[in-house]
């Protein structure tokens, strides 16, 4: 499903942020990616959806070899990968509905099919009643729920989340985790970089720890393993 073999990433400034990553993540797994700031967690994740290109090594996602994938085919890859960010990255000037519909409209679905999928997905995240609002009219937790709806509306096989609870208070963070759990129960792989010790130690899943661009720990039902 997601596989890396001896993957390296050196940025143009000479920093090596991935240094021999080898890992296999199966369909349906829930994986936390932990480690200190600057360890290479974001890089690890960005390599999976070809936001960054590996300098060396092999990456396959959903059977697609990212090393040889043409830039023009990257949008095709992304249809099967939902991405969620710490700062939500919603389009501020269009409604909640339009933010979620956007991903479907670009793949030329029929209007009725779009409407059905968007409303079902907003319902799943508990925001059907706010479809007409603008992102700026919502709380942070609600904005993140919209971002999650946007990420899953195409029914991707994988959702990649980079610190999805990083800007949220504890109660709201638990809500977001419940939604991710629900998505995972439906068979979607979740890869989530996080500093949320409380979450990782409470809702236990596989934990991959990265330090200095290397995987230093990879355990099923692991714990956070750092002080904070
Ligand atoms: P983390 O997500 O664990 O904080 P990152 O993957 O963001 O780690 O960063 C790993 C290292 O790579 C850091 O030293 C960071 O400064 C560097 N880095 C990240 N992105 C870039 C970039 N676009 N250009 C140059 N260096 C980068
Ligand atoms: P939550 O229920 O996620 O904790 P809040 O308590 O922050 O959300 O917000 C309660 C309600 O107020 C939400 O339904 C949200 O739509 C609305 N709201 C929050 N922040 C704003 C804002 N900046 N502008 C307009 N409405 C807001």
Would you write up a description of this structure?
It contains seven helices and ten strands. It has a six-stranded mixed β-sheet with strand order 6-7-8-3-9-10, sandwiched between helices. Strand 1 (2-10) and strand 2 form a beta hairpin. It has helices at 41-48, 74-78, 96-105, 111-124, 140-152, 170-185, 197-202; strands at 2-10, 16-25, 30-34, 56-61, 64-65, 81-85, 158-162, 189-193, 206-211, 214-219. The protein is globular. With 228 residues, the protein is an alpha/beta fold. The protein has a domain at 28-37 and 76-219: Rossmann fold. It binds adenosine-5'-diphosphate (ADP) (2 copies). One adenosine-5'-diphosphate is lined by residues 11, 13, 15, 17, 35, 37-43.
Protein traits:
globular; Rossmann fold; 32% helix; alpha/beta; 228 residues; six-stranded mixed sheet; binds adenosine-5'-diphosphate
Please list the strands of the largest sheet in the order they lie side by side: 6-7-8-3-9-10
CATH superfamily of the domain at 28-37 and 76-219: P-loop containing nucleotide triphosphate hydrolases
Low-confidence stretches: none
Share of residues in strands = 25-35%
Shape: globular
- CATH class wording of the domain at 28-37 and 76-219: Alpha Beta
Given helix and strand content, the structural type is alpha/beta
Query: What is the correct CATH architecture of the domain at 28-37 and 76-219?
Result: 3-Layer(aba) Sandwich
Whole-angstrom Rg: 17 Å
Mean pLDDT: 96
How many separate helices? Answer: 7
Helical amount among residues, as a percent range? 25-40%
Under CATH, the topology of the domain at 28-37 and 76-219 can be stated as Rossmann fold
Order of helices and strands: EEEHEEHEHHHEHEHEE
Function: Part of the ABC transporter FtsEX involved in cellular division.
Membrane topology: Peripheral membrane protein
Keywords: ATP-binding, Cell cycle, Cell division, Cell membrane, Membrane, Nucleotide-binding, Transport
Subunit structure: Homodimer. Forms a membrane-associated complex with FtsX.
């Amino acid at each position: 499903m997601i596989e890396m073999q001896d993957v390296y990433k050196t940025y143009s400034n000479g920093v090596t942020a991935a240094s021999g990553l080898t890992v296999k993540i199966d369909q349906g797994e829930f994986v936390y990616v932990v480690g200190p700031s600057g360890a290479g967690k974001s890089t690890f994740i960005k390599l999976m959806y070809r936001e960054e290109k590996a300098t060396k090594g092999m990456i396959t996602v959903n059977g697609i070899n990212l090393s040889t994938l043409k830039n023009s085919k990257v949008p095709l890859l992304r249809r099967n990968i939902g991405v969620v960010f710490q700062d939500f990255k919603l389009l501020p000037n269009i409604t909640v509905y339009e933010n979620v519909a956007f991903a479907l409209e670009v793949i030329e679905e029929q209007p009725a099919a779009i409407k059905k999928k968007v409303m079902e997905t907003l319902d799943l995240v508990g925001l059907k009643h706010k479809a007409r609002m603008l992102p700026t009219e919502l709380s942070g937790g609600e904005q993140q729920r919209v971002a999650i709806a946007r990420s899953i509306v195409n029914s991707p096989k994988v959702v990649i989340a980079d610190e999805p609870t990083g800007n949220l208070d504890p109660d709201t963070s638990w809500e977001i985790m419940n939604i991710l759990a629900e998505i995972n129960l439906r068979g979607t792989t979740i890869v989530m970089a996080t500093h949320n010790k409380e979450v990782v130690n409470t809702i236990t899943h596989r934990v991959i720890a990265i330090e200095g661009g290397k995987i230093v720990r990879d355990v099923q039902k692991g714990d956070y393993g750092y002080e904070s």
